[in-house]
Specification:
The complex is a heterodimer of chains A (149) and B (229). Chain A has 149 residues and is α/β, with parallel strands linked by helices. Chain A has a single domain, classed as Rossmann fold (3-Layer(aba) Sandwich), CATH 3.40.50.720. Chain A contains six helices and six strands; from the N terminus they run βαβαβαβαβαβα. Chain A has a six-stranded parallel beta sheet, with helices on both faces. Chain B folds into two domains: 118 residues, Rossmann fold (3-Layer(aba) Sandwich); 87 residues, Alpha-Beta Plaits. With 229 residues, chain B is of the alpha/beta class. In chain B, the strands form two sheets. In chain B, strands 3-2-1-4-5-6 form a six-stranded parallel beta sheet, sandwiched between helices. A five-stranded antiparallel beta sheet of chain B has the order 7-8-11-9-10. The chains are: A alpha/beta (149), B alpha/beta (229). Chains A and B meet through helix 4 and helix 5 of A and helix 4 and helix 5 of B.
């Protein structure tokens, strides 16, 4: 499978390495050339020698997406640090380039929920964190709750 | 536009601030939303309660500002992705009847088109359009594009060897879907009649269906078929 990852921060670079280690073709796009170094963290050879691709460019520029190989992509991950950028490029990947699998990382739970309803598949780390924290606290509260006792 | 509309403007940059002031002066109710604290404080000194501090791409910020009763949302921030998102949620989630989006980078126009975020305004394009108009050796100039109405108005200078030069307007068979509406000659504009004889150097204005530009360029162009440019 050919995976295109746009936005190569902590999340994007980790997913990129995992996909590569799983034997998939991986191409990364980031506007910061330094993001390339992050990809090589914990690798024993360079990102390219490991089989990865890296393109410097702005996520919203169609030319950059094309150079990174969006037309061949089987999966597209939008993981830049901008929620709005991720929402817009995910729609471009879906509607213009017909990428079969598109996922957008959205930090804001409200936008993530609404766009999920609109057919943009979203992952919201904030929502996951909220649920885990609530579960932990409620469990503690349940254990020693005055109402329960 | 009728008086007393509720208009939300996202982004208090030069465009947003001036726009908000003009709209308020015209009697509209305006909420301007600005994300940068310092900019907000500056604008707030003049516009007071009409400017809100917050990120206009946060749904709760839009809701707090009363987007559900907005007649129009205008997104003029410096980020095209923000403008696209704000307009998209305004229209699709909050069912705002009218939106206007600003395009900062003309290369992003295709994304606005793809996501059907229209109308949009690009200052760069407007200036290019004016430039095109000012440059003397132009062929055909777009004066007005109304893609929704599927209508364009163009202006073209008849070259010295124009194939229509010396012909009566009544004898012309204009390409189907186009109409000659005006002739500018020696600084004077007039509506041509059937007996008007076109001359080289005339500037002709025509209304046409989109996509007929090339045909029209050839129709009014050089007799050798080389076109006007």
């Amino acid at each position: 499978m050919f995976v295109l990852i746009v936005g190569c921060g902590r999340v994007g670079s980790s997913v990129a390495r995992t996909m590569l280690q799983e034997g998939h073709d991986v191409s990364c796009l980031d506007e910061d050339p330094e993001a390339h170094a992050r990809l090589e963290v914990s690798l024993d050879k360079s990102w390219e020698d490991s089989g990865g691709r890296f393109t410097v460019g702005t996520a919203l520029e169609a030319d950059a997406l094309l150079e990174a190989g969006i037309e061949q992509a089987d999966a597209f991950i939008a993981s830049t640090d901008g929620d709005n950028t991720n929402i817009i490029i995910a729609q471009i990947a879906q509607q213009r380039f017909n990428v079969p699998k598109v996922v957008a990382r959205i930090l804001d739970p409200l936008r993530a929920e609404w766009y999920e309803q609109q057919g943009v598949h979203t992952i919201c780390p904030t929502k996951v964190a909220i649920e885990m924290l609530e579960a932990e606290v409620l469990e503690a509260a349940g254990a020693g709750s005055p109402e329960a006792g | 536009m009728a008086e007393g509309k509720y208009i939300m403007v996202a982004g208090a940059g030069k465009v947003g601030w001036n726009l908000a002031r003009e709209l308020i002066d015209k009697g509209h109710e305006v909420t301007l939303i600005e994300n940068d604290r310092n900019r907000y404080l500056t604008v707030e000194q003049e516009l007071e309660h009409s400017v809100h501090y917050g990120d206009a791409s946060e749904l709760w910020v839009l809701e707090r500002a009363g987007i559900s009763r907005a007649d129009m949302v205008i997104a003029v921030t410096g980020d095209d992705e923000d403008n696209m998102l704000i307009c998209q949620v305004a229209r699709q989630k909050y069912l705002v009847e009218r939106i206007i989006a600003r395009v900062n980078n003309p290369r992003n126009r295709e994304h606005f088109e793809l996501l059907d975020i229209r109308p949009y305004v690009s200052a760069t394009d407007l200036i290019l359009r004016l430039l095109e108009h000012e440059v003397p050796d132009y062929g055909l100039v777009h004066l007005l594009d109304l893609p929704e109405e599927r209508l364009e108005i163009i202006e073209m200078l008849l070259p010295d060897d124009s194939r229509v030069s010396g012909k009566r307007v009544g004898d012309l068979t204009m390409p189907e879907g186009s109409l000659l509406i005006s002739v500018l000659r020696e600084g004077q504009g007039f509506v041509p009649g059937p007996d008007t004889v076109l001359e080289a150097g005339d500037e002709v204005l025509a209304v046409l269906d989109p996509g007929l530009e090339e045909e029209l360029k050839e129709f009014f162009g050089s007799a050798d078929g080389a076109g006007a440019d």
